[in-house]
Amino acid sequence: MDASNHQIRDGQYGFSNLIGKYCGRTFPPEITSKERYLWLHFHSDESIEYQGFTAVYEFIDRNRDAPSTDLNCTIEKDGFEGFINSTDVPQEIRETVIRNKIPLDCMWRIQVQDKWKIQVTFLNFKLSKPNDCEVNFLDIFPEQTVMPMRVKNFCGSAGEGITSDSNILHMRFYAEQIAINSTFSILFTAFRDRGSGGCLEGEYDCEDATCIDGDLRCNGRSNCKFLWDEEGCKTGTDGQKEHMIIIITVFGLILGGMVITFLVNCIRKIMHDQKIIRVSL
Description:
Blueprint: E1 5-10, E2 17-23, E3 39-43, E4 74-77, E5 81-85, H1 91-100, E6 104-111, E7 117-126, E8 136-141, E9 152-154, E10 162-163, E11 168-175, E12 183-193, E13 203-205, E14 210-213, H2 236-280
Parallel strand pairs: 4-6
Antiparallel strand pairs: 1-2, 1-3, 5-12, 6-11, 7-10, 7-12, 8-9, 8-11, 12-14, 13-14
């Protein structure tokens, strides 16, 4: 088997439909993409014996009579934390999917700062057709979106947390027409390995050899893997409880004062009436 080969796929990612895989002296035919992207990948080992390859490309008008399958659905995310939601998909893309009767195929690209990594936590995951992995699924890729490097495939009824090995992560959501109403909500958190130097000023130590941004402490969301960033935090519910206790206490004191005043006045009136009765007798 020849160790050198050239893959060509009809799309912009390494999981797009394979047009052909060419190796040895086989000369590829003329290739035309269905839409505006072609994905090319050349692989070779250290024993390069030939002259390589040269390819020429040109842009041509697509067939206007056929409905377009190019959704251009790529969503960029960054920061120390954020959310990946099924509702991120623009309404016009959903309308195009329904109108042209094509699958929904969207990619989220998460990139955090250099030398940091990404932790993914599922908050909600509800596919319209769970366990039907051809109809709807969520794939997670590292920097490269090639199938051999796919980190995880979710097509059941639950999603599990994962962590990246670099500062870039890709998430692909695919759904056929009957499953485009699938819903999911995912929290991503940027973290870095603590190392021997410990966490820096402005960072929070998750006590699992990782550091997160200090502003994520007590934000109502669990950004540390073992939830330490929310340990001992005063939640909004706690504040409401304290507020209610204060109100009830004040109300009780006022009511108690009114009752005591009423009783004192009653006793005084009774004593006054008794004096009047004795004088009359």
